[in-house]
Write a structure and sequence with these properties.
Helices cover 10% and strands 58% of the residues. It has one helix and 13 strands. It is elongated and about 60 Å long.
Length: 224
């Protein structure tokens, strides 16, 4: 995992160095190639009725966006990205891997119950902004879809002073996607992610289909 993260950061800065050359063109046409960093409060939604809401949970993302302008002014564009994301949840769904099968139970009575995941992210955006070739502080509305490929997932809980840990459970959905929205002024922008795919595949809880999804909202910072 350490080698994977190191490779991702090296790739970010390599792409960024080329992006700066693309962004510094003469004339009116320009692009907004950017590094991004997002910090989000996160919650599970579509949980079974017996499961209470998650406690304080968060998500972090860092990556690079390649901007492709769709008009001469450069204020309307299409962007493709690549990044890394980490999610941390304090939650109440007990997840176990038993004999190659993922089992779900009520974890409201557990002493602690934590979920962590490491992901590759591939955002795609349609972008509108009030920028110009010489104006670097501007309003923006960026919306699109983000594809997520899970590198690893870990479910750890403590019950009756005994610790249990399960990694890369079989029911976890490796490829996910969701809607994104970023809006704001200059470097400080509000950011929302709403997953359109459940976290688990073919999963049930007390004979009820388990459709747990992820909702994140917080701040995203863009660095030219």
């Amino acid at each position: 995992m350490k080698n994977t993260v190191t490779f991702i950061f090296i790739l970010f800065f390599t792409l960024f160095s080329f992006a700066q050359k693309d962004s510094l063109q003469l004339g009116d046409r320009y692009s907004e190639d950017q590094l991004y960093l997002s910090i989000n409060y996160a919650q599970f939604f579509k949980q079974p009725n017996a499961i209470t809401k998650s406690s304080f949970s968060y998500g972090l993302s860092v990556g690079f966006m390649k901007d492709i302008t769709l008009n001469k002014q450069g204020n309307f564009s299409f962007a493709l990205g690549f990044g890394y994301g980490f999610d941390f949840f304090n939650h109440q769904l007990k997840v176990e891997e038993l004999n190659g099968t993922t089992v779900f139970n009520n974890g409201n009575s557990l002493n602690s119950n934590v979920f962590k995941s490491h992901n590759l992210e591939f955002p795609i955006e349609i972008r509108w902004r009030t920028s110009t070739a010489k104006k670097y502080k501007f309003w923006r509305i960026y919306t699109g879809i983000k594809f997520i490929y899970n590198l690893s997932n870990h479910f750890d809980y403590t019950e009756n002073n005994n610790s249990f840990s399960f990694s890369n459970v079989s029911a976890y959905k490796k490829l996910q996607y969701g809607l994104t929205l970023s809006t704001g002024y200059d470097a400080f922008n509000l950011n929302v992610f709403y997953s359109l795919t459940p976290l688990f595949e073919n999963a049930t809880f007390s004979n009820e289909e388990l459709n747990t999804g992820i909702l994140k909202f917080g701040l995203i910072f863009y660095i030219l």
